[in-house]
């Protein structure tokens, strides 16, 4: 368990990162709706993803509390792809996104991935900063990728050296 500093005035919030299971579906569905609104994944899609083959999802949960972040990875035998990374509004900017991303990259290394790929909205500056500060580089711009607004996305890559 690692403390996430600055989560409130003069306090720290402990968050445990662990694999997601079907028991997390209610919290995952709630967070997805709060964070992504109409662009959210359906409950069934979430359920299929967290148990899907070649998928690995982790969640950050406060001890005895609700899910406050989650992230997912897909691995095809060569490359890994970040499927999602989300932190609820009250826990953003406290290092939790970095911890979730680090967990995904560590898992990609364990699986023997050569590279980690992801796509991120071009207007999501905090996420772009997180990924670039973790060693990801932009490969190109994907036009009209995100629905329903048809917002462009950056395709980004992290080469895993010393696997």
Question: What does this molecule look like?
Answer:
This protein has one domain (2-159): Aminopeptidase (3-Layer(aba) Sandwich). The chain has an 8-stranded mixed beta sheet, with helices on both faces. It has helices at residues 25-36, 43-51, 96-111, 125-133; strands spanning 2-8, 11-19, 55-61, 67-75, 79-87, 115-121, 137-146, 151-159. It is globular, with a radius of gyration of 15 Å. The chain is built from 4 helices and 8 strands, in the order ββααβββαβαββ. The two termini are 26 Å apart.
Topology:
Elements lengths: L1 E7 L2 E9 L5 H12 L6 H9 L3 E7 L5 E9 L3 E9 L8 H16 L3 E7 L3 H9 L3 E10 L4 E9 L4
Parallel strand pairs: 5-6
Antiparallel strand pairs: 1-2, 2-3, 3-4, 4-5, 6-8, 7-8
């Amino acid at each position: 368990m690692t403390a996430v500093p600055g989560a409130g005035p003069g306090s720290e919030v402990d968050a445990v990162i662990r694999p997601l299971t079907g028991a997390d579906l209610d919290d995952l569905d709630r967070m997805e709706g709060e964070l992504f609104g109409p662009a959210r994944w359906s409950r069934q899609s979430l359920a299929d993803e967290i148990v899907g083959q070649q998928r690995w999802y982790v969640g950050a949960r406060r001890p005895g509390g609700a899910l406050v972040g989650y992230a997912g990875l897909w691995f095809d035998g060569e490359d890994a792809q970040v499927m999602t990374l989300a932190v609820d509004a009250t826990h953003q900017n406290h290092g939790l996104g970095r911890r979730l991303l680090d967990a995904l990259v560590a898992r990609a290394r364990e699986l023997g991935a050569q590279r980690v790929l992801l796509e991120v909205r071009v207007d999501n500056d905090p996420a772009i900063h997180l990924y670039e500060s973790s060693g990801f580089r932009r490969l190109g711009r994907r036009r009209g990728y995100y629905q329903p607004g048809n917002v462009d996305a950056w395709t980004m890559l992290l080469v895993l050296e010393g696997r």
